[in-house]
Amino acid sequence: MRPNLRQRGEGRVGCLFWAVIFAVIALIAVKAVPVKYRSSQLFDFMDEQAKFAQQTTPDRMKKAIMRRARELQIPLDPKKLSVSKAGGRIRIQAEYMVPLEFPGYTYEWNFEEDINEPIFIW
């Protein structure tokens, strides 16, 4: 059987389309994954602070959380962070927005962290 020498390579448009889609997904991942990782580190730190709330005051916890947010380069406004102890429970609430800048567009990723844990006495 002879190969058909008249075949046209029309698969290039599809390949280009998927290459663009892959590039967009890669760009989003490069921008979003580090932000999500830092955000989860801050949440873990806040959760750890809540677990050991018996040993410190709400003001010290707030200062420690703000210091950790600065270390992680998270734009947390002290006015949007509240730490309170009441009725044997600790509540930590934080709201912040991280801008993700893409070519021609800035996405504002809002985070709302809320931890409400019992205070364990030992």
Task: Please describe what this structure looks like.
With 122 residues, the chain is an alpha+beta fold. It has one domain (12-118). The protein has two helices and three strands; from the N terminus they run H-H-E-E-E. It has helices spanning 12-51, 58-71, and strands at 81-86, 89-102, 105-118. The protein has a three-stranded antiparallel β-sheet with strand order 1-2-3. A hairpin with a 2-residue loop joins strand 1 (81-86) and strand 2. The longest helix is centred in the first third of the chain and has 40 residues, at 12-51. The radius of gyration is 24 Å and the shape is elongated. It starts with 11 loop residues before the first helix and ends with a strand. The relative contact order is 0.14. The mean pLDDT is 89.
For the record, give the distance between the C-alpha atoms at the N and C termini, rounded to a whole number. 85 Å
Structural class of the helices, strands and pairings?
Answer: alpha+beta
Counting H and I runs of at least 4 residues, what is the number of helices?
A: 2
Task: Please count the beta strands (DSSP E, at least 2 residues each).
Answer: 3
Share in β-strands: 25-35%
Shape: elongated
- Average pLDDT confidence is 89
Q: What's the number of structural domains?
A: 1
Sheet with most strands: strand arrangement: 1-2-3
Pattern of helices and strands: HHEEE
Largest sheet: 3 strands, antiparallel
Which stretches are low in confidence, meaning pLDDT under 50 for 5 or more residues running? none
Proportion in helices:
40-55%
- As a whole number of angstroms, the C-alpha radius of gyration is 24 Å
